[in-house]
Design goal:
The complex is a heterodimer of chains A (234) and B (579). Chain A has 2 domains: 37 residues, no CATH class; 195 residues, Cytochrome c oxidase, subunit III, four-helix bundle (Four Helix Bundle (Hemerythrin (Met), subunit A)), CATH 1.20.120.80. Helix content of chain A is 74%, strand content 3%. Chain A has a two-stranded antiparallel sheet. In chain A, strand 1 and strand 2 form a beta hairpin. The mean pLDDT of chain A is 89. Chain A starts with a helix and ends with a helix. Chain A is mainly alpha-helical and 234 residues long. Chain A is flat, with a radius of gyration of 23 Å. Chain B has one domain: Up-down Bundle (Cytochrome C Oxidase, Chain A). In chain B, 61% of the residues lie in helices and 1% in strands. Chain B has a two-stranded antiparallel ribbon. The C terminus of chain B is likely disordered. Classes of the chains: A mainly alpha (234), B mainly alpha (579).
């Protein structure tokens, strides 16, 4: 019999907690590893992302309470983040493109992880570089958006000609913090990609690093979906 | 794939002195670096508290304590004690030292990041202390750092001090995150063979759950710090509404001070348990070892730690009953606050029942553990007063609150820390401390703590407010308050002086103490079974220990010794093996 089962049964008492719950606790409390055959780095990245989720949640919840309590009018985000195409103002165009780019980068990242586990060095590295390029495109479009907002619209962290000052403050803070995450992700992807290319993970026989970088990247994309929904679409 | 614990590739052993002791990746060295830095900065906070007592006991007698200095002392004392001493010492110090040894690992899973964690912590301490030397001095906004007063003129340190404080906190959070990820992942994924979660010593349980809580609670403080810095530096209005300060309207408009309070206490209340849970865990082990008896209700002890940890995320607004938030919130938060009393009471009863008919050895670590039971029960009982909205409102911002939280999260964890240091000192240094000095230190500290904090409850019930520089001629304050204040200050002076017995003892014994037995208390948990004392880099020599039982096999009938080490196989030496 498996050692885990014996432990669960040995600790069982008549009555009390149902068998199924006891087995659940037994699985979690099992010998040596809670997450069986999971690389520690992967577990650590998941826990870090959980912590980071709390940071972004705090930012977004703070922004939402502020937005519902300010007395000055909140600018119409569809217009502010619109783009003029041939004289026609298309609402949310830039942001739609940015979102598309970032979501696509999650696709290339997922493929990179797949090729990594198939030990295909070249394809893995190429897809990771593609992911990093899409990420860099996202950051540069964000820079364009910031420039437009600062120089064309005159928005400042402490001042907003279109209404509530908190609009500019929370916009720069939240997108800035997210942009920082994307930039760090781009650097991380490039480092891991170069290690892939040099055969570092082939020698170690362990491609987990690609997947761990991928976890972070998907998380940053997911956070963007929430920022997109709560900041731009609201 | 083999587990990490089975990974027998040799660790990278640095050859140079700097590699071994300065840029060290060994969890034991990092633990000592964390602990000594934390105790050092804690000494600064201890001196500050004595300066406050001098002013309160003998108002106006000391000209170097001006009102703004007093406020700065209050602020720095509180923040240093809670974050830079207690959190850093219990998690960075004890967490680092004990986790790998107690779960049978060679080191933390990511030693490099663990090392970075310490250096970031040191940086945060340096940034914090540098605020003493900038124009305007450190911030004097109270340790909770509520805006708007922290960043508007008239508050000490509103120009430089508050920014450095917030930057330092942000750096601390980065440092803690790097350490905390290591502690949690090591417990989850790097235990030795046979070490199920339900065989871990309570110390590891406490530190483990507190680390998870830290990873989820510190983000709120991080966000609050970033937003305060932006308010102060970039002129944003996250927290500051339109107000008139010093006769002039500020440039801010539309911010919400209560938002800051929610963010701060979403961190602040779990923080109480981030400090308390490791202390709970460690004290369980001290009591069990020195009473030569298994911990009563081990499984409930572990579950109570988990439940307290989870519940503590739903009680934060009980710090805000008088803040002006919606009064209906008070109902919810009072209820959830009182529910926490249930798992906490389970723990207290289990400690008492562990002592019941135990073979109690009143050695110094045990004295501290029993003292903890006194102070913690007292602090917990006054907590019942403050948890109820209608009782809290008149007691809010009085010395009763000061007495309560110093008893429950100041004195109690500190007593456990002292007990733990005396308990593990022989393992850490290989030498034994001086018994006489240690006993003198204990009795002065324990009785002195009562002499300091018990009268504060009385002063508080009379309505004396906290954080006041001087009370002056106030009709409702009887002369007894002034005598009490004087008495508290004298007691504080004695306790302050007694700490030098501790430091003398620790430092002298480190060099001149007699060689200690590798397992002087007869402990059953893994850290006492290391092949070397003090444990060397890699902890376990060539082969990792295998665990066959829980950590509490004391006074087992029929066993040859009064304890059975966790690593002893069943059947060996004719002992019975409970699961």
């Amino acid at each position: 019999m498996d050692q885990r089962t014996t432990i669960v049964e040995a600790e069982a008492e008549p009555g009390g907690v149902p068998q199924s719950l006891r087995e659940l606790a037994g699985d979690w409390g099992a010998d040596q590893e809670v997450f069986r055959h999971v690389h520690w780095g992967k577990a650590m990245m998941w826990i870090f992302l959980l912590s980071d989720t709390f940071i972004f949640s705090s930012f977004l919840v703070s922004y939402m309470t502020m937005r519902s309590s300010v007395t000055a009018p909140w600018p119409n985000t569809a217009e502010v983040f619109g783009l003029d195409v041939g004289g026609v103002s298309v609402p949310l165009l830039l942001i739609a493109i940015m979102t598309f780019v970032l979501i696509s980068s999650s696709g290339t990242m997922a493929m990179a992880v797949n090729f990594g586990y198939r030990r295909n060095r070249k394809a893995t590295a190429a897809l990771m570089v593609a992911t990093a390029l899409l990420g860099a495109t996202f950051v540069s479009m964000q820079a364009f958006e910031w420039t437009k907002l600062i120089f064309t619209e005159g928005v400042r962290p402490w001042y907003n000609p279109m209404g509530a000052a908190q609009f500019g403050a929370s916009f720069f803070m939240i997108t800035g913090f997210h942009g920082l995450h994307v930039s760090i992700g781009v650097i991380m992807l490039l480092i891991v990609a170069s290690k892939v290319l040099r055969g570092h993970y082939d020698r170690r026989g362990d491609y987990s690093a690609v997947e761990i970088a991928g976890l972070y990247w998907h998380f940053v994309d997911l956070v963007w979906v929430f920022i997109f929904a709560f900041f731009y679409l609201w | 794939m083999a587990t990490i614990a089975d990974d027998l590739r040799p660790l990278h052993h640095p050859k140079t002195w700097i590699g071994k002791y300065v840029w060290s990746q060994d969890h034991k060295v990092i633990a000592l670096q964390y602990a000594s830095t934390a105790i050092g900065v804690g000494l600064v906070a201890l001196v500050l508290s004595f300066m406050m007592r001098l002013q309160l006991g003998f108002p106006g007698r000391f000209h170097f304590i001006q009102p703004e200095n007093y406020l700065q002392f209050v602020t720095l004392h509180g923040m240093i004690m809670v974050v830079y001493l207690l959190t850093a010492l219990l998690l960075g110090g004890f967490g680092n030292y004990l986790i790998p040894l107690m779960v049978g690992a060679r080191d933390m899973v990511f030693p490099f990041v663990n090392m970075l964690s310490y250096w970031f912590y040191l940086l945060s301490v340096i940034v914090l202390l540098s605020s003493i030397f900038v124009p305007g001095g450190p911030t004097g906004g109270g340790w909770t750092l509520y805006p708007p007063q922290t960043i508007t003129g008239g508050t000490p340190g509103s120009n430089w001090g508050i920014i450095l404080m917030m930057v330092s906190l942000a750096i601390f959070i980065v440092a803690f995150t790097m350490g905390g990820l290591n502690y949690v992942t090591t417990v989850l994924q790097a235990r030795t063979k046979g070490m199920t979660l339900m065989r871990m010593p309570c110390s590891v349980w406490g530190i483990f759950v507190a680390s998870i809580m830290g990873l989820l609670a510190f983000p709120a403080l991080f966000v609050a710090a970033v937003m305060t810095i932006l308010d102060a530096v970039a002129g944003t209005s996250f927290f500051v509404p339109q107000i008139v300060s010093m006769g002039k309207p500020t440039e801010h408009v539309g911010g919400s001070p209560i938002l800051y309070q929610h963010l701060f206490w979403f961190f602040g209340h779990p923080e109480v348990y981030i400090v308390a849970l490791p202390a709970f865990g460690i004290v369980s082990d001290l009591i069990s070892v020195h009473a030569r008896k298994n911990i009563f209700g081990y499984r409930m002890m572990a579950w109570a730690i988990i439940i307290i940890g989870a519940l503590s995320f739903f009680v934060w607004a009980h710090h805000m009953y008088v803040s002006g938030m919606n009064p209906y919130f008070g109902f919810f938060f009072a209820t959830s606050t009182l529910i926490i009393a249930i798992p906490t009471a389970i723990k207290v009863y289990n400690w008492l029942l562990t002592l019941w008919r135990g073979d109690i050895h009143l050695r110094v670590p045990m004295l501290f553990a029993i003292a903890f039971l006194f102070t913690f029960i007292h602090g917990g009982l006054s907590g019942l007063f403050l948890g109820n909205v209608s009782v809290d409102v008149p007691l809010s911002d009085t010395f009763f609150v000061v007495g309560h939280f110093h008893m429950v999260m100041g004195v109690s964890p500190i007593l456990v820390i002292f007990g733990a240091i005396y308990h593990w000192y022989p393992k850490i240094t290989g030498r034994m401390w001086n018994e006489t000095l240690a006993r003198a230190h204990f009795w002065i500290t324990f009785l002195g703590a009562y002499a300091i904090f018990l009268p504060m409850h009385y002063i508080g019930i009379l309505g004396v407010p906290r954080r006041y520089y001087a009370l002056g001629e106030t009709a409702f304050i009887p002369p007894s308050v002034h005598y009490a204040n004087m008495g508290i200050t004298i007691a504080a002076g004695l306790v302050f002086a007694a700490q030098f017995l501790f430091f003398t003892n620790m430092i002298w014994s480190y060099f001149r103490g007699p060689k200690a037995d590798p397992n002087p208390w007869g402990g059953a948990s893994l850290e006492w079974q290391t092949p070397d004392t003090p444990p060397t880099h890699g902890n376990w020599g060539a082969k990792l220990p295998t665990v066959y039982r829980w950590a509490y096999d004391y006074s087992v009938p029929g066993a040859p010794q009064d304890f059975i080490p966790q690593s002893e196989p069943p059947g060996a030496a004719g002992s019975r093996a409970p699961a």
